[in-house]
Amino acid sequence: MKLPASENMSLADRAFIESRVPLRPDDAVAAIIQPAEGRYLMQLRDPLDHIFFPGHWGLFGGAIEKGESDLEALHRELFEELALDVPIDEITYFTRIDLDFSFAGHGKIRRDFFRLKIDEKMVPKLKLGEGADLRVFSGAEILLEPRVTPYDRWAIWLSESQERLDASATDHI
Predict the structure, then answer these.
(1) What is the pTM of this model?
(2) Residue 55 is part of which domain span?
């Protein structure tokens, strides 16, 4: 694969492709925030070389700190990243992805995904505390967007495909 000359790359591209800064994988949580059915609130990740997938669209969330439950971590992250103080009982578990970093000496980590429905009218009132931008995408738009964190794309695909994956829908196969 031929890469563009470094001087023609954006800061995010350089952080993603050329960085040699060590990364530290951790257990994490992410919110599939839906301001309307089939719509997803996404964060454009900062162009920082010490984070996974800089300059990519991803779900809001982050690492679980020592002593936190998954829901406590997600509640904290949503407040830090969006100034969104949502009651924990409005957040529902969706799915989980396990990632094995044993090849690099880190062991296995998990990324738990939760669903949160919010009123569309709340979106303009959110205050971006982390990330370069936020935007609401349709399911098709975000799934076809080239720069999306792969694990978040997977969770959104699962959300969009839930009816197709429903056990009662596959009984006839």
Answers:
(1) 0.91
(2) 26-160
